[in-house]
Amino acid sequence: MEDLSEQSPSIDSYIDRIQNNFGQVIDRTISLIDKEVLDRAITAIEQSKRIFIFGIGASGLAAQEAQVSFLRVGRSAKAIIDSHFQAMEATTFTKEDVVIVLSLSGRTKDIYESATIAKNNKATIIVITNFILSPIAQKADITLNTSMGGVRCRWRVAFCKSIAASSD
Predict the structure, then answer these.
(1) In angstroms, how far is the first alpha carbon of the chain from the final one?
(2) Measured between alpha carbons, how far is 91 from 114 in angstroms, rounded to an integer?
(3) I need a labelling partner for 96 at 20 to 30 A (CA). Which of 62, 116, 162, 168 fits?
(4) Residue 135: CATH number of its domain
(5) Whole-structure pTM value
(6) What is the domain count for the chain?
(7) What residues make up the domain containing 99?
(8) Are 101 and 60 in contact (CB under 8 A)?
């Protein structure tokens, strides 16, 4: 195991690494975009009566951020980040609703079950995932592939250690 206590990267080093990591994720995701599929997703969202966004954990945070983004462009959307509420809400969906499912792995069991309920109620399912062949992606009407989370950052450990040490 590498001893990170002797390393003291500068704040500029952290900023450069963050910028580089996000730049790589954005570049890789752009290279994966199928414009026709993206256009179908946009059309489904525009034509929907209601928009719901499912995510758990870090994907739940992204769902909440998406909710805010929709509000900023004048569309109401509801982020649901609790798996029990996702399942309950999915029972009310109709063919006029769109569910945007965020799951990097595409394998979160609770999300899969809620997407199944939504699909059975004829809602349009848009899945955003790293794995287009995952079980959740297979439930989708529209799948958007992303490249998030593929960048490993060892410096995060040092950063967390420095924050923990400074809070003592």
Answers:
(1) 24
(2) 9
(3) 62
(4) 3.40.50.10490
(5) 0.78
(6) 1
(7) 29-145
(8) no
